[in-house]
Amino acid sequence: MNLLKLTLLVTSVALLSLPLSAQQKRVSPHETISKVIGSKAEANRVTIVYGRPYSKSAKTGETRTIWGSLVSWDKAYRLGADESSLLLTQKALIIGSTTIPAGAYTIYLVPSENGASKLAFSSKLGTWGEPVDEGHDVCRVDLEKSTLEADVPQLTIKIEAVATGGGVIKISWEKTQFALPFTVQK
Fold first, then answer.
1. What pLDDT score was predicted for residue 22?
2. Residue among 40, 180, 178, 171 nearest 100 (CA)
3. What's phi and psi for 27, nearest 5 deg?
4. Are 88 and 46 in contact (CB under 8 A)?
5. Residue 39 pLDDT
6. 49, 84 Cβ separation under 8 angstroms
7. Are strands 144-161 and 103-110 parallel, antiparallel or unpaired?
8. CA 42, CA 153: separation in Å to the nearest integer?
9. What's the DSSP call for residue 130?
10. Could you tell me which of 43, 7, 178 has the C-alpha nearest to residue 107?
């Protein structure tokens, strides 16, 4: 039954966004990533759909500085290109002391150069990525920020399972990575 509900939800979101997509022109490639987290009894599929902009400008071919320039510090960033990025989870996610109920969310990033960067979960779905609508936030959670040795020329989001049974969402671009460890509610 849960699989049927998730399928209906994904289909509804896709159909609702068609008129919006027809009005806007995509400029970046898009990707859907999905990972089953947890043991069989606690298995939870987490899916993220997002646009993948490049560090190089599509118009000029010049390499852009991402963090602190193209993406401002301490301001909401749509986390991708074109349509708002979408996260789907079949079961509730636990992030620190915050529980995010099962369902569909627009996700966006609030990067910080010196303070805590945050990932926001919004209940408003089916929008173009800009401007970010901060009025429908369900919650914002702290991210772990680190510096990468190798440059990542295209925004990349990964979902990885960890040995303890939980998972981690990793957002990488340029030489910065943001990580969000989570567990699945039992």
1. 43
2. 180
3. -120, -10
4. yes
5. 78
6. no
7. unpaired
8. 35
9. S
10. 178
Is the separation of the CB atoms in 43 and 134 below 8 Å?
A: no
Our CA angle for 154, 156, 160, nearest 5°, is 160
pLDDT at 57: 87
Element at 83 (helix H, strand E)? none
- The rounded distance, in Å, linking the Cα atoms of 93 and 100 is 5
Spans in the chain with pLDDT lower than 70:
1-24
Place of tokens 């190798």: 150
Task: Classify strands 85-89 and 93-95 as parallel, antiparallel or unpaired.
Answer: unpaired
- pLDDT for 58 equals 81
Domain boundaries defined on the chain: 2-184
First to last CA, the chain: 17
Whether 107 and 87 have beta carbons less than 8 Å apart is answered as yes
Q: Which two tokens stand for residue 134?
A: 């901060």
What's the pLDDT score for residue 15? Answer: 47
